[in-house]
């Protein structure tokens, strides 16, 4: 220890504003630690659940308090200042980037951190990495985690490199991916990795083991596997999740050819998790990630009541969460889209004498094509817009959800209304202008969907393309029949 034995211990927590880091900070405060965080933004630290424990700038934290050091983990000078007098430090920094040589950057950052910890006489480094098999080629991100852990183990500072699988907790990206895949898909045909074995762990248990690892004697310098009592396939995790929250059983099948990048785009389409975040998560699922030893438990014990089961961890993570939000949103949006389709079909009169006498271009599709196209497009509209609205609601952004719902409502009104203008009023010029407004509204929906996730914009784009084509067709029909019938001439 670098401090007087009678003074409260000081821990430096990096990544304290992340999900695990924030929970760890809370746990350390409960245990009476003085906590210092290395943060780029003091304001973000103040917004954390422990923000009221932060002392004024320039003051030192006492037991159960937090001092924020504003700095950058890439700066040696900042690292030395942040690590000064620390008894232990927790390294929870991990890049989710896919650009450049992030592995080299992570190695460089870890070496810089280890060197500063050595020079400042820090008593212990606690690192959180990922479970992984031995003797296999690992994904880029999982391999990087292993390399960083080894850098700390090779340093002069005693290190506990903890290795965990999927973390089950409300703010865990891995859990959010699992949750939304399970809630939003009635079934799935997934890649082969959904059959890989995983030992998940609750966030409560992760922070227990992280905080406890700081108490290890200085002669302990090694990796430790941590995990809950259950080991399941990812497919089984989806099925067990559905069972735990009371959803009907999910059918999950594996396919042999889906690539990680394609899977990441699918996840970005279906869930709020962006493809660039899903890619490293999938990388860790390309292997069996199971606990091989539980040696840390013999050193520090287990959490009160033992390690949480998968079902208990899911229930805790979903406390206060509406697990039926997707069903409600999809139901409401689908009802609105169906009403639009019904109204439009009632207003369409392709058998009227006035429509049959119209001069139509040779490139107008056959009549049988229209119901097939519109059925597919209505399904597309319902699902893509439900995903966008549901994501806004998940983010507690009610204004954005209302804005998108309003844009969708306007679009559906224009959609159904065009049928009345074209087939009932027979004002062909107005119908062409109306179709143009519908095409513009459809393009706006595509823009909004693209902003939510590019994959959604791409899937919804055929709707904008079709309404754009309808505008050109309506304008051509109006041009061809202007002299023959006039814009309001009756049959």
TrEMBL record:
What is the protein name for this chain? Tryptophan-rich sensory protein
Cross-referenced Pfam families, in alphabetical order?
NAD_binding_10, TspO_MBR
Residue ranges spanning the membrane: these are: 330-348, 369-389, 401-423
Family of the protein in this entry: Belongs to the TspO/BZRP family.
Give me the Gene Ontology terms describing cellular component. membrane
Query: Which keywords does the record carry?
Result: Membrane, Transmembrane, Transmembrane helix
Ranges for domain NAD(P)-binding: 15-133
Coiled-coil regions in this chain?
Answer: none
Q: Which Gene3D superfamilies match?
A: NAD(P)-binding Rossmann-like Domain (3.40.50.720), TspO/MBR protein (1.20.1260.100)
In terms of InterPro entries, this protein maps to: NAD(P)-bd_dom, NAD(P)-bd_dom_sf, TspO/MBR-related_sf, TspO_MBR
Membrane topology, record value: Multi-pass membrane protein
Keyword Transmembrane carried by entry: yes
Q: Which organism is it from?
A: Corynebacterium tuberculostearicum
Q: Which GO terms describe its biological process?
A: tetrapyrrole metabolic process
């Amino acid at each position: 220890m670098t401090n007087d034995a009678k003074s409260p211990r000081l821990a430096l927590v990096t990544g304290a504003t992340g999900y695990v880091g924030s929970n760890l900070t809370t746990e350390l405060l409960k245990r009476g630690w003085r906590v210092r965080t290395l943060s780029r933004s003091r304001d973000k630290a103040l917004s954390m659940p422990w923000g009221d424990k932060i002392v004024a700038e320039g003051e030192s934290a006492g037991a159960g308090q937090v001092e924020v050091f504003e700095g950058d983990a890439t700066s040696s000078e900042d690292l030395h200042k942040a690590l000064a007098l620390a008894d232990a430090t927790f390294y929870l920094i991990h890049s989710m980037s896919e650009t450049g040589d992030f592995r080299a950057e992570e190695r460089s950052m870890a070496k810089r951190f280890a060197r500063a910890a050595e020079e400042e006489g820090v008593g212990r480094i606690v690192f959180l990495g990922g479970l992984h098999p031995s003797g296999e080629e690992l994904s880029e991100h999982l391999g990087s985690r292993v390399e960083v852990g080894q850098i700390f183990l090779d340093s002069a500072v005693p290190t506990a490199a903890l290795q965990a699988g999927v973390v089950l907790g409300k703010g865990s990206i891995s859990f959010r991916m699992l949750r939304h895949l399970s809630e939003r898909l009635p079934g799935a045909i997934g890649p082969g990795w959904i059959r890989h074995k995983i030992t998940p762990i609750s966030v409560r248990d992760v922070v227990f083991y992280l905080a406890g690892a700081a108490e290890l004697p200085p002669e302990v310098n090694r990796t430790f596997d941590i995990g809950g009592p259950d080991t399941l396939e990812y497919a089984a995790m989806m099925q067990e999740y559905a069972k735990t929250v009371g959803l009907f059983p999910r059918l999950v099948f594996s396919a042999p050819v889906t690539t990680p990048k394609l899977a990441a785009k699918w996840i970005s389409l279906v869930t709020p998790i962006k493809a660039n975040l899903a890619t490293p998560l999938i990388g860790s699922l390309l292997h069996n990630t199971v606990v091989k030893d539980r040696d840390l438990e013999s050193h520090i014990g287990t959490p009160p009541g033992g390690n949480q089961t998968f079902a208990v961890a899911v229930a805790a993570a979903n406390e206060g969460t509406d697990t039926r939000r997707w069903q409600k949103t999809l139901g409401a949006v689908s009802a609105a889209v169906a009403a639009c389709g019904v109204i439009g079909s009632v207003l369409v009169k392709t058998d009227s004498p006035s429509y049959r006498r119209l001069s139509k271009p040779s490139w107008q599709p056959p009549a049988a094509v229209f119901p097939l196209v519109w059925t597919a497009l209505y399904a597309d509209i319902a699902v893509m817009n439900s995903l966008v609205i549901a994501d806004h609601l998940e983010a507690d952004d009610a204004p954005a959800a209302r804005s998108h719902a309003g844009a969708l409502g306007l679009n559906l009104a224009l959609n159904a209304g065009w049928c009345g203008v074209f087939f009932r009023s027979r004002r062909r010029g107005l119908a062409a202008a109306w179709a143009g407004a519908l095409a513009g509204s459809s393009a706006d929906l595509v823009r909004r969907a693209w902003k939510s996730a590019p994959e959604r914009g791409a899937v919804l784009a055929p709707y904008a393309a079709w309404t754009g084509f309808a505008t050109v067709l309506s304008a051509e029909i109006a041009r061809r029949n202007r002299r023959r019938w006039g814009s309001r001439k009756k049959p």
